[in-house]
Amino acid sequence: MFSKESLYINAIKYKTQLKINYKKLNNNDIVETNSSTFIAKDDILGRDIATKLNAHASQIDNTYISSLLIQDDTKIINKNKKFKDYAITSLNNDYDIAILKNTLFETKNYFDKCGIDYIFSAYHILNLHTEQNPCNNNLVILLFNNQAFCLILNDKGEIVFNKRIGLTAFEEINESKFYENEVLGQKLYDEIYALELYEAIKNTIEEFYSTKKNIFIEKVSILYNLKLLSAEQIKAMSDEFMIDVTYHPISIDEELFELSKDTHSLKNFIKPRIKPKNTFKTLIFSLFIIVAALALGYVFLPFEQILNKKENKVEVKKEVIKKVIELPNHIEKNSLVEQRVLNSLEIIPYDILLKELVFEKNSLKMNAFFLNKDTYIKVIQPELLKTYEATTIIFKEDKKGVILDGEVKAEALKNKNIVKLKNYSDAYELNEFIPIITVTEQIKMLFPKDAIVTFKSNFNSEIVTFNYLVNVVIQKPLEFFEIINTLNNELYSINIYYPISFIKTEAGIEVEFTLQFHQPK
Predict the structure, then answer these.
(1) In the CATH scheme, what architecture does the domain 71-267 have?
(2) DSSP string for residues in 443-486
(3) 269 band by pLDDT with thresholds 50, 70 and 90
(4) Quick one: average pLDDT of 186-203?
C-alpha cells in the first residue's frame, strides 16, 4: 500500500484529547515520525485540527488516516454470521467482529472535515498482539480508554472466551462528592482503579470456569497504554490468584500502524478513500496539447498581422512597486506556545499537585506537591530532557513527610523554532496605522471582562510592536487554549510571548503573559 512516498496518520480520540501520530514513509521505509496532542471535547473534529490534517494530506497523495472506535462496544462473533444494523469485519481466521452502524457512524462523522481511511476496534489491537506473541492458556487484558478488553486463549492460542468491561474514568471521580482536592482525588482514583481491575479479573476467571471445565488459565497478561498500577499491586494480584500476573506497556500507535498495512487493512470497518492517481503523465500530456495549440495558432495567424506587429504600439503601464512589509506569523507563534504549554501539562502525572508553572523563552520552572519523591526521576525528568538540555529539582523540608514540596527547573530549550514571517499585504488587512488607544480597546474585547490588560512598552523598526501585560483568571487549562484560538482567528498579528505563568489560587488558575500587537510603521 505504501509504495514510494506516503504518509500515515494515527488520530486517536480520548475523552478530552485527540492524540495524533505521523509516520512518513519512502518505499515502505519510515523516514520521519512526529506526534502532537490537542484538546478535543466536541463531538466533531475542530476546524483548526482538521485544517492541519488536510494540510499534511495535501502534500502527499498517498496519505492514510486511521483511528480506533470512539465508542467501542464491539462484539466478537462467529465467521459469516450476520446481524441486522451491524457493520461486520474480520478479526482473525476464526472470528469476525461487529459494531452497530450508528456507533460506527459516530467515529466516521467525527472525522468528516478531514476524512478517514481506517477504523479499527481495540479488539483488533489485542488480537494482533496475541498473534505476534505466544499467549497459550492465557487471559490477556488490554486496558484502553477506561475499558478492559479481555481474551482467553487455549493451549493452541485460539480465542475461547471474550469480555469487555467498563472501568471508572478519572473524570467521574473528579465530579463525585468524595473528591476533595487533586492529590487526594488521585489517590482515591488509584485505589478504585486497582480494586475495579482486581474484581474484573476475578469475575472474568470465575465466569470462564463456570462454562469451560477443560481449559486452565496459566497466566494473566495485562497490557496498558498508561501505567496506573505499581509492581507491588501486580504482585499482590499474582499471590491472590495464585497464577503469574504480568503488567507491561503496549504502543497503541505502533499496533494501529501495523493494522493499517498490508493484509491487516482487510479488517477495516470502512472502505478507504480513493487516492489521487499519479498526475505526472497527465501533466506532460496537457503541456503537449498547449504547445501544439500555440504552434498551430502561429502557423495560421494572418501574415499581415505578423508584419504589422512592429508598427503596433503597446502602451505599457509602469508598475508601482510597493515595499513589502512583513509581519510575524501570529498563528505560528501562538501554536508554538500552545504546544509547549500542552506538552508540559501532559507530563504531569496524577500524583502531583501543580501549584505554579512559569515559561521563559528558553526555560521552565514548576512548583508542585509530590506524593512520591521518585516521581521526578521516573516520570518528570526523562520527559523534560526530551525538550531541555538540563533539569533539576529541589525539595523543601517537610516536617510531616507525607507530601513533598518541590521546585523543578528546566533550562536550555532544544530545537528552538524560527518563526516565519508572513507577507503583510497577503495576510493582514491594515489600511492605516492604528494608535495605542484603539489597539488597547480592541485587545480588551478579546478577553473576559475581568481580565486586566496593561500597556507596557512599544518597539519601533519597520514594524511597530505594542507590548501588553495580560492577567486573567481561568478555571481550567482548556480556557487558555481557547484564548489562543481566539487570537488565531484575528486578522491582525497578535501573539502571546514570554514570560507566561500559571499560578493556582483560591479563585482558579491565574494566568499572566505578554501580548504583542504588530503593525507596519
Answers:
(1) 2-Layer Sandwich (3.30)
(2) HHTTS-TT-EEEEEEEEESSEEEEEEEEEEEESSHHHHHHHHHH
(3) very high
(4) 87
